[in-house]
Design brief:
Number of strands: 0
Order of helices and strands: HHHHHHHHHHHHHHHHH
Oligomer: single chain
Radius of gyration: 20 Å
Number of helices: 17
Largest sheet: none
Number of domains: 2
Length: about 375
């Protein structure tokens, strides 16, 4: 467990670039260099993590830790990988909350918002290329984005993802069926997830209870991980935080290594200002917990489920709807908060070119946008 913790702690300190980059780091570290699992096992675990709600890269680390040393290894992997970004974002929330507003701070935060716009636009383009190759999936992407622009809200998100899953399970090109012996799920984890999902909203009479319930719900419903958590967390935080505060936290999450879901650490600290560290911890654990419970519950029966063509079709539809959800979030709140003048659009377009075409690292792009905002201010 100590060895697992140290390996993941190092990755938590150095893994910049978001979920896709994290998966690459994991493959090189645990398959190629350490040989903790082979390439086929790695691919199977990755496929399950992509299907389930929650943070895909953190779930993959959790699965690798479980494969190596059971539940203790899984928890050691999670703590090691999450701890650096948790501390950085929680401390950022504490520090920013004590700073008086001034021209330089406003300009720096605006630079971070422009960075968020560039990164989300890049994620939309990458995910559309990966998950929306056919007319059916492209139509689902556009319909989901249009529905959320017209009628934003969590109910619209869930309805569009459900419709996409049913449509693709019926109409998408399905792979050939395979045979695999059935092994049941881990029922205690599944029951605990169900009880928490249904019961926590009933206990949300206080600020702390409402925070736990809202972040647990967000972690239970976000498919795709990474940037896709943005609109769900916005729903959770909209009553307590302004759009500017939310987007600032999202921008800061781009600058730190490790999982993007630790945006919850920043938001939780601001939502419970009298107990900021407790709020950061509770929000982070509540957001990560659903995905880990479902991963633990469905791991035993994953191989048998994977052999069913209809499930593969439903996953195709969900992925396409997720891209539409992210496309909708690109406009609100990201675009509306970041692009306030033509010069902002010029900076964002230049940043997107540097990131996608010139392959400029995210940290270098962040420094460039911050410097540009400060000079313009």
């Amino acid at each position: 467990m100590i060895g697992i913790f140290l390996q993941f702690l190092w990755l938590g300190c150095t893994s910049f670039g978001g979920p896709a980059a994290h998966i690459g780091y994991f493959q090189r570290t645990f398959v190629t260099r350490l040989g903790w699992l082979d390439q086929a096992e790695f691919a199977q675990q990755l496929a399950l993590c992509q299907l389930l709600p929650g943070p895909a890269s953190s779930q993959l680390g959790f699965a690798i830790g479980r494969h190596r040393a059971g539940l203790g290894g899984a928890l050691a992997a999670f703590v090691g990988f999450t701890l650096p970004s948790f501390l950085l974002l929680a401390l950022a929330a504490l520090g920013l909350g004590q700073l008086a507003e001034n021209l330089w701070l406003d300009a720096a935060l605006h630079g971070l918002k422009l960075l968020a716009l560039v990164v989300v636009a890049d994620a939309v383009l990458n995910m559309a290329r990966q998950f929306c190759k056919e007319p059916l999936t492209q139509g689902i992407m556009v319909a989901t984005a249009a529905a959320l622009w017209w009628q934003p809200g969590l109910s619209t998100q869930l309805l569009m993802m459900l419709a996409a899953a049913l449509l693709c399970a019926r109409l998408a090109k399905l792979p050939a069926a395979q045979s695999h012996p059935w092994q049941g799920p881990h029922w205690p984890s599944l029951v605990l997830f169900t009880l928490l999902f249904l019961g926590l909203p009933l206990l949300a009479s206080s600020e702390t209870g409402r925070l736990i319930a809202d972040f647990f719900r967000a972690g239970s419903l976000v498919f795709g991980g990474g940037h896709v958590v943005l609109p769900l967390l916005e729903q959770s935080a909209e009553q307590s935080l302004s759009a500017s505060q939310f987007l600032t936290g999202y921008s800061l999450a781009q600058l730190v290594p490790g999982p993007m879901f630790t945006l919850a650490s920043y938001l939780g600290a601001l939502m419970l200002p009298q107990q900021a560290l407790l709020g950061a911890l509770l929000a982070t654990l509540a957001l990560f917990l659903p995905g880990f419970l479902l991963l633990w519950a469905l791991g035993p029966c994953w191989q048998a489920l994977l052999a069913r063509p209809r499930l593969a079709g439903a996953v195709t539809g969900i992925n396409a709807a997720v891209v539409g959800l992210l496309l909708a979030a690109l406009y609100q709140p990201v675009w509306q908060s970041a692009v306030l003048a033509p010069k902002d659009l010029a900076l964002a377009a230049t940043g997107l070119f540097l990131l996608r075409v010139m392959k400029l690292p995210v940290l270098a792009l962040a420094a460039l946008l911050l410097a540009s905002s400060l000079l313009l201010a």
